[in-house]
Amino acid sequence: MSEQERVDGTGGTSGAVGAGGEDPGRRVRAALEAVLMVADEPVRVQALARATGEAPDEVDLLLRELAGEYAEQGRGFELREVGGGWRVYSRAEHADVVEAFLLDGQTAKLTQAALETLAIVAYRQPVSRARVSAVRGVSVDGVMRTLLTRGLVCEAGVEATSGATLYRTTEEFLQRMGLDGLEDLPPLAPFLPDELTVEDLEPREVLAEPVREPVREPVPAAPGVGDDEVPGRGASTQEPRPGLEHHQEDS
Protein backbone atom coordinates (compact mmCIF):
# COMPACT_ATOMS: atom_id res chain seq x y z
CA MET A 1 0.00 0.00 0.00
CA SER A 2 1.37 3.39 -1.01
CA GLU A 3 1.55 6.47 1.18
CA GLN A 4 -0.94 8.20 -1.14
CA GLU A 5 -3.44 5.40 -0.57
CA ARG A 6 -3.10 5.93 3.18
CA VAL A 7 -3.65 9.66 2.85
CA ASP A 8 -6.62 9.72 0.47
CA GLY A 9 -8.33 6.68 1.99
CA THR A 10 -8.26 4.51 -1.14
CA GLY A 11 -6.78 1.54 0.64
CA GLY A 12 -5.21 0.14 3.81
CA THR A 13 -6.32 0.07 7.39
CA SER A 14 -5.77 3.71 8.22
CA GLY A 15 -7.85 5.10 5.40
CA ALA A 16 -10.85 2.78 5.53
CA VAL A 17 -13.92 3.65 7.56
CA GLY A 18 -16.04 0.86 8.97
CA ALA A 19 -19.76 0.42 8.46
CA GLY A 20 -20.47 2.04 11.81
CA GLY A 21 -18.40 5.12 10.95
CA GLU A 22 -15.40 3.93 13.02
CA ASP A 23 -11.93 4.39 11.59
CA PRO A 24 -10.18 0.99 11.88
CA GLY A 25 -6.80 2.74 11.74
CA ARG A 26 -7.65 4.75 14.84
CA ARG A 27 -8.75 1.58 16.61
CA VAL A 28 -5.47 -0.18 15.80
CA ARG A 29 -3.45 2.83 16.92
CA ALA A 30 -5.34 2.89 20.21
CA ALA A 31 -4.77 -0.85 20.63
CA LEU A 32 -1.04 -0.42 20.05
CA GLU A 33 -0.91 2.35 22.65
CA ALA A 34 -2.76 0.18 25.17
CA VAL A 35 -0.31 -2.70 24.74
CA LEU A 36 2.76 -0.47 24.88
CA MET A 37 1.55 1.23 28.07
CA VAL A 38 1.69 -2.06 29.98
CA ALA A 39 4.88 -3.43 28.41
CA ASP A 40 7.91 -3.49 30.72
CA GLU A 41 10.34 -4.21 27.88
CA PRO A 42 10.53 -3.39 24.15
CA VAL A 43 7.88 -5.23 22.12
CA ARG A 44 8.72 -6.50 18.65
CA VAL A 45 6.59 -5.51 15.68
CA GLN A 46 5.72 -9.15 15.03
CA ALA A 47 4.29 -9.52 18.54
CA LEU A 48 2.23 -6.34 18.16
CA ALA A 49 1.01 -7.55 14.76
CA ARG A 50 -0.20 -10.82 16.28
CA ALA A 51 -1.92 -8.97 19.12
CA THR A 52 -3.78 -6.57 16.82
CA GLY A 53 -4.33 -8.90 13.88
CA GLU A 54 -2.64 -6.47 11.48
CA ALA A 55 0.20 -6.96 9.01
CA PRO A 56 3.68 -6.28 10.44
CA ASP A 57 4.41 -3.61 7.82
CA GLU A 58 1.19 -1.80 8.72
CA VAL A 59 2.00 -1.97 12.44
CA ASP A 60 5.52 -0.68 11.85
CA LEU A 61 4.15 2.30 9.92
CA LEU A 62 1.57 3.09 12.61
CA LEU A 63 4.24 2.96 15.32
CA ARG A 64 6.39 5.46 13.48
CA GLU A 65 3.38 7.74 13.04
CA LEU A 66 2.65 7.57 16.76
CA ALA A 67 6.28 8.32 17.63
CA GLY A 68 6.21 11.37 15.36
CA GLU A 69 2.93 12.62 16.84
CA TYR A 70 4.20 12.33 20.41
CA ALA A 71 7.34 14.29 19.53
CA GLU A 72 5.40 16.96 17.64
CA GLN A 73 2.87 17.41 20.45
CA GLY A 74 5.58 17.70 23.11
CA ARG A 75 4.17 14.90 25.27
CA GLY A 76 5.85 13.94 28.52
CA PHE A 77 6.59 10.52 27.05
CA GLU A 78 8.00 9.25 23.78
CA LEU A 79 7.82 6.08 21.74
CA ARG A 80 11.25 4.66 20.95
CA GLU A 81 12.51 1.80 18.82
CA VAL A 82 15.17 0.08 20.93
CA GLY A 83 16.54 -3.43 21.18
CA GLY A 84 14.58 -4.64 18.18
CA GLY A 85 11.25 -3.51 19.61
CA TRP A 86 9.15 -0.52 20.65
CA ARG A 87 8.51 0.87 24.11
CA VAL A 88 7.12 4.02 25.73
CA TYR A 89 9.59 6.04 27.82
CA SER A 90 9.37 9.25 29.81
CA ARG A 91 11.14 12.11 28.05
CA ALA A 92 14.70 12.87 29.16
CA GLU A 93 13.95 16.53 29.95
CA HIS A 94 11.58 15.43 32.72
CA ALA A 95 14.08 13.05 34.37
CA ASP A 96 14.51 15.25 37.46
CA VAL A 97 10.76 15.29 38.14
CA VAL A 98 10.44 11.54 37.63
CA GLU A 99 13.43 10.88 39.89
CA ALA A 100 12.04 13.09 42.65
CA PHE A 101 8.70 11.28 42.46
CA LEU A 102 10.27 7.81 42.62
CA LEU A 103 12.65 8.66 45.45
CA ASP A 104 9.98 10.33 47.57
CA GLY A 105 8.47 7.01 48.66
CA GLN A 106 11.89 5.46 49.24
CA THR A 107 13.16 8.22 51.52
CA ALA A 108 10.07 8.44 53.72
CA LYS A 109 10.87 7.41 57.28
CA LEU A 110 9.85 3.98 58.48
CA THR A 111 7.23 3.81 61.21
CA GLN A 112 8.11 2.58 64.68
CA ALA A 113 6.32 -0.70 63.94
CA ALA A 114 8.37 -1.16 60.76
CA LEU A 115 11.62 -0.45 62.60
CA GLU A 116 10.79 -2.95 65.33
CA THR A 117 9.88 -5.61 62.76
CA LEU A 118 13.03 -4.93 60.76
CA ALA A 119 15.15 -5.28 63.91
CA ILE A 120 13.62 -8.67 64.69
CA VAL A 121 14.28 -9.90 61.16
CA ALA A 122 17.85 -8.59 61.28
CA TYR A 123 18.74 -10.31 64.56
CA ARG A 124 16.66 -13.47 64.13
CA GLN A 125 16.98 -14.19 60.39
CA PRO A 126 15.95 -16.30 58.67
CA VAL A 127 12.60 -15.93 60.39
CA SER A 128 8.93 -16.43 59.55
CA ARG A 129 6.16 -13.87 59.87
CA ALA A 130 4.58 -15.96 62.60
CA ARG A 131 7.76 -15.81 64.66
CA VAL A 132 8.05 -12.05 64.21
CA SER A 133 4.40 -11.66 65.20
CA ALA A 134 5.01 -13.80 68.29
CA VAL A 135 7.88 -11.58 69.41
CA ARG A 136 6.00 -8.33 68.74
CA GLY A 137 2.65 -9.60 69.96
CA VAL A 138 0.75 -8.23 66.94
CA SER A 139 0.23 -9.12 63.28
CA VAL A 140 3.06 -7.91 61.04
CA ASP A 141 1.61 -8.74 57.61
CA GLY A 142 1.21 -5.12 56.53
CA VAL A 143 4.59 -4.08 57.91
CA MET A 144 6.35 -6.97 56.19
CA ARG A 145 4.81 -5.93 52.87
CA THR A 146 6.22 -2.44 53.40
CA LEU A 147 9.70 -3.80 54.14
CA LEU A 148 9.52 -6.05 51.08
CA THR A 149 8.47 -3.12 48.90
CA ARG A 150 11.34 -1.00 50.23
CA GLY A 151 13.77 -3.80 49.39
CA LEU A 152 14.96 -4.09 53.00
CA VAL A 153 13.90 -7.72 53.43
CA CYS A 154 13.38 -10.59 51.01
CA GLU A 155 12.22 -14.20 51.02
CA ALA A 156 14.82 -16.73 52.16
CA GLY A 157 13.29 -20.13 51.54
CA VAL A 158 10.81 -22.21 53.50
CA GLU A 159 11.02 -23.56 57.03
CA ALA A 160 11.26 -27.34 56.89
CA THR A 161 9.04 -28.07 59.89
CA SER A 162 6.13 -25.69 59.26
CA GLY A 163 6.38 -24.81 55.56
CA ALA A 164 6.28 -21.11 56.46
CA THR A 165 8.11 -18.62 54.25
CA LEU A 166 11.29 -17.30 55.84
CA TYR A 167 12.63 -13.77 55.51
CA ARG A 168 16.05 -12.17 55.77
CA THR A 169 17.55 -8.73 55.31
CA THR A 170 19.02 -7.62 51.97
CA GLU A 171 22.14 -5.91 50.69
CA GLU A 172 20.06 -2.73 50.54
CA PHE A 173 19.53 -3.03 54.30
CA LEU A 174 23.27 -3.31 54.91
CA GLN A 175 23.96 -0.30 52.70
CA ARG A 176 21.32 1.82 54.41
CA MET A 177 22.69 0.83 57.82
CA GLY A 178 26.31 1.37 56.77
CA LEU A 179 27.28 -2.22 57.60
CA ASP A 180 29.69 -4.56 55.84
CA GLY A 181 27.85 -7.62 57.12
CA LEU A 182 25.44 -8.89 59.74
CA GLU A 183 28.34 -9.50 62.10
CA ASP A 184 28.63 -5.71 62.38
CA LEU A 185 25.17 -5.35 63.94
CA PRO A 186 25.49 -3.72 67.37
CA PRO A 187 24.98 -5.82 70.52
CA LEU A 188 21.30 -6.07 71.29
CA ALA A 189 21.23 -7.05 74.96
CA PRO A 190 21.37 -3.50 76.42
CA PHE A 191 18.24 -2.52 74.48
CA LEU A 192 16.03 -5.51 75.24
CA PRO A 193 13.05 -5.29 77.60
CA ASP A 194 13.23 -7.38 80.76
CA GLU A 195 11.01 -10.18 79.44
CA LEU A 196 13.27 -10.89 76.42
CA THR A 197 16.74 -12.34 76.14
CA VAL A 198 19.30 -12.21 73.36
CA GLU A 199 18.55 -15.87 72.56
CA ASP A 200 15.04 -14.86 71.50
CA LEU A 201 16.34 -12.66 68.69
CA GLU A 202 19.83 -13.75 67.71
CA PRO A 203 20.28 -15.52 64.35
CA ARG A 204 19.79 -19.24 64.28
CA GLU A 205 20.36 -21.92 61.69
CA VAL A 206 17.21 -23.40 60.18
CA LEU A 207 17.92 -26.99 59.27
CA ALA A 208 16.40 -28.54 56.17
CA GLU A 209 16.25 -31.92 57.94
CA PRO A 210 16.13 -32.83 61.62
CA VAL A 211 19.46 -33.77 63.16
CA ARG A 212 19.75 -37.49 63.82
CA GLU A 213 21.67 -38.14 67.01
CA PRO A 214 23.93 -41.21 67.15
CA VAL A 215 22.48 -44.29 68.79
CA ARG A 216 23.60 -44.57 72.39
CA GLU A 217 23.61 -47.49 74.74
CA PRO A 218 20.95 -47.21 77.47
CA VAL A 219 22.27 -45.76 80.72
CA PRO A 220 20.90 -47.40 83.86
CA ALA A 221 18.91 -45.04 86.00
CA ALA A 222 20.17 -44.27 89.44
CA PRO A 223 17.87 -45.20 92.32
CA GLY A 224 15.15 -42.61 92.76
CA VAL A 225 15.74 -40.99 89.39
CA GLY A 226 12.81 -40.96 86.97
CA ASP A 227 13.04 -41.87 83.28
CA ASP A 228 12.72 -38.23 82.27
CA GLU A 229 15.91 -37.45 84.16
CA VAL A 230 18.12 -40.22 82.78
CA PRO A 231 21.14 -38.70 81.00
CA GLY A 232 21.16 -39.32 77.26
CA ARG A 233 17.35 -39.46 76.94
CA GLY A 234 17.20 -35.90 75.49
CA ALA A 235 15.28 -34.37 78.40
CA SER A 236 16.47 -31.27 80.17
CA THR A 237 16.55 -30.94 83.95
CA GLN A 238 16.52 -27.15 83.77
CA GLU A 239 13.39 -25.33 84.84
CA PRO A 240 11.84 -22.88 82.33
CA ARG A 241 13.08 -19.34 82.80
CA PRO A 242 10.39 -17.10 84.30
CA GLY A 243 8.68 -14.76 81.87
CA LEU A 244 9.77 -16.60 78.71
CA GLU A 245 7.07 -19.26 78.40
CA HIS A 246 4.84 -17.15 76.14
CA HIS A 247 7.73 -16.29 73.82
CA GLN A 248 8.65 -19.85 72.90
CA GLU A 249 7.42 -21.26 69.58
CA ASP A 250 5.07 -24.21 69.66
CA SER A 251 6.81 -27.40 68.71
Automatic annotation (TrEMBL):
InterPro entries named among the record's database cross-references: ScpB_csome_segregation, WH-like_DNA-bd_sf, WH_DNA-bd_sf
Domain of life assignment: Bacteria
Keyword Cell cycle applies: yes
Composition-biased stretches (Gly residues): 9-22
Keywords (A to Z) from UniProt: Cell cycle, Cell division, Chromosome partition, Cytoplasm
A Pfam family that the UniProt record links to this protein: SMC_ScpB
GO biological process, one term: cell division
Stretch list, region Disordered: 1-24, 204-251
Compositional bias of kind Basic and acidic residues: 204-216, 242-251
Annotated protein name in UniProt: Transcriptional regulator
Source species taxonomy: Bacteria, Bacillati, Actinomycetota, Actinomycetes, Kineosporiales
